[in-house]
Write a structure and sequence with these properties.
The chain is α+β, with helices and mostly antiparallel strands. The protein has a domain at about 5-105: Aminopeptidase. It is about 30% helix and about 30% strand. The chain contains three helices and eight strands, in the order βαβββαβαβββ. Strands 1, 2, 3, 4, 5, 6, 7 and 8 form an eight-stranded mixed β-sheet that branches. About 25% of the residues are buried.
Length: about 150
């Protein structure tokens, strides 16, 4: 089952798009992983990648933050795939789409992420290297990872 990928800025998401984005993120980041405040003020300064099934249901999502919003580099975050699609390559497809947008929008720039520590192997497959010691973010062990611009 392919997903249709759409890039939008926050103002172009519309009420339904914002609702869908927050609902998917809440299912994974709040219900599965424990409570934390997901809307962090950065959504308004982000590109949003939405992966929808043919019927329109949002199944995958990530956001790109412009350089200077969270890190000096562009940042990928809120990477999420609905539980029903995990283990089928959709996370890798989502990251490929995100990295392609980074290369198009900020050619040659490095990308920095705050990755859940348990997902370092996944992100290494996309060219990221661990760039910090482990730390707690919202009660979950994380590390910063960096992908050099090329």
């Amino acid at each position: 089952m392919p997903l249709a990928w759409v890039w939008l800025r926050f103002g172009d998401l519309g009420a339904d798009g914002v609702y869908d984005m927050l609902a998917l993120r809440a299912r994974v980041f709040v219900l599965e992983q424990g409570p934390f405040l997901d809307p962090d003020g950065a959504d308004r300064s982000a590109w949003h990648l939405l992966g929808r099934k043919a019927g329109g249901e949002l199944m995958a999502y990530l956001r790109l933050l412009d350089p200077g919003v969270k890190y000096d580099e562009v940042s990928i975050g809120r990477v999420v795939v609905d539980a029903a699609l995990r283990g089928r390559g959709f996370g890798h497809a989502l990251m490929r789409e995100g990295l392609a947008r980074c290369a198009l929008t900020w050619p040659g720039h490095a990308v920095r992420i705050s990755a859940q520590a348990r997902l370092q192997r996944f992100y290494r497959q996309h060219g990221f290297e661990t760039a910090s010691d482990e730390y707690l973010e919202d009660g979950v062990p994380h590390v910063q990872m960096r992908r050099s611009g090329s």
